[in-house]
Amino acid sequence: MEKIAVIYWTGTGNTELMAKYIAEGINAAGGQADVFNVSDFSQEKLAEYSRYALGCPAMGAEELEDSEFQPFYEAVKPSLSGKKVVLFGSYGWGGGEWMNPWKADAESAGLLLAAEPLAIENAPDGDGKTACENLGKALLQA
Question: What is the CA radius of gyration of the chain?
Fold first, then answer.
């Protein structure tokens, strides 16, 4: 069984909800998803997983959260080169533009994006839940 780490940072709970729905999609497709708040995941745990879902909402001027998530991402990025990854997060305003530079950075660092990143405005509704579940399935099946 494929073990997948779903790692996120959340401010309002919306990205955490997305992480849970992504894990549900992974589990429904036959994988094993473990969900972690970024503060509960260490770089040493990376070797326990073969694929990764990384989630962070848009913050400030459409950027990654800079006190916990950005430092974590920068630290693990070299270890994730060549690994299957999906990116996700929520936003409240600004149209979700923070996802474009994050996607470009991940690709230039050699992360293999298993699907297009998923950005959802505010909390995921029914369609958003389905999109999250589908993202989890895509990560497992890529």
Answer: 13
Q: Give the CATH number, domain containing residue 38.
A: 3.40.50.360
User: CA 65, CA 56: separation in Å to the nearest integer?
Assistant: 7
Pairing between β-strand 51-55 and β-strand 112-113 as defined by DSSP bridges: unpaired
pLDDT tens for 93-117 read 777 889 999 999 999 999 999 999 9
Give CA–CA dist 77/64, Å, rounded. 14
46 Cβ contact list (under 8 Å, min separation 6) = 5, 52, 76, 79, 80
Tally of structural domains, the chain: 1
Cβ-proximal residues to 49 (8 Å cutoff; 6+ apart), any chain:
3, 4, 5, 34
The three-state secondary structure class of 111 is coil
Write the burial class of residue 41 (CB in 10 Å: 0-12 exposed, 13-18 middle, 19+ buried).
buried
Domain that holds residue 54: 3-141
- Neighbouring-strand partners of residue 6: 35, 53
Q: Is the pLDDT confidence value at 119 over 90?
A: yes
